[in-house]
């Protein structure tokens, strides 16, 4: 029996990092795991079931964007190197200044990538986003046209390109759709908080653009499984990978098979909350396209007050990371449309949650209730 791999997770208290750590812990997949994050576990809204996997002796507090942190992050007592490094770090908030993304995403990736190459890490996994593709309703494959449409994606793509130039780095790039699941605090969370307010206001929830706008998704459990499957595949010799046809750096889309659209989400939310949902006509959508800033401000003004009231009525004093605040970057009429077949064909991966459903969304809300985040 070969020794199990040792694992370093950068940004290990973030949403994906913590679920990956828990997946490894629960299934006893690694000989050693180190979780690195600039935030302490006590301040990371960490649900109790993650404490064993993410906190205690496994945890090292460090800022991976700073070069002087690298020895603390990578050095081990036995002098050996980590086998797998997962870079789940980087800035995940929208609408920040360019400098923030450069430092916290781009510089961080390059910093840990260079160090991983220097130390001969067997597999370095860089998490990226499907927002790097040119928006198109037809699903983008890994080698399709790139035209990033969020700031996060602009800097993630730069990181992908620079990491690919590092000699000796055993690099894999993973581009993710919208990740949802228990405790999620982005994308799906915003829609659910908005729906909760519309329910309280007894009004219809209307989306901009059309029901066909692609908003592809993937469940967090499948993301954790996929990340682990990819490292195993890579270190076992990259079977079925063809450099000439597929490129030098193995790159995989991780996206479920449900072809999630705004219409899918509207139907599910309507069912879960018992509210009527619909779409603004083309007139309002055209106006919104030209005046996106003011439209977003209006929606946020309309929702934030009632949301605060709901929290107060429910006696929630520490509301956690949830908010109905709508990010302008996420309200563009851009398709997030990805083809995930390469992961299945090359790595042999199977999705356990192939499409988003009413039940899976209800599970997300239940997790919020458990944390006392949900009014």
TrEMBL record:
Domain named NAD-dependent epimerase/dehydratase: residues: 7-234
The organism's place on the tree of life at top rank: Eukaryota
Signal sequence extent: none
Pfam families, per the entry: Epimerase
InterPro entries documented for this protein: Epimerase_deHydtase (IPR001509), Lipid_A_modif_metabolic_enz (IPR050177), NAD(P)-bd_dom_sf (IPR036291)
Protein name per the record: NAD-dependent epimerase/dehydratase domain-containing protein
Lineage: Eukaryota, Fungi, Dikarya, Ascomycota, Pezizomycotina
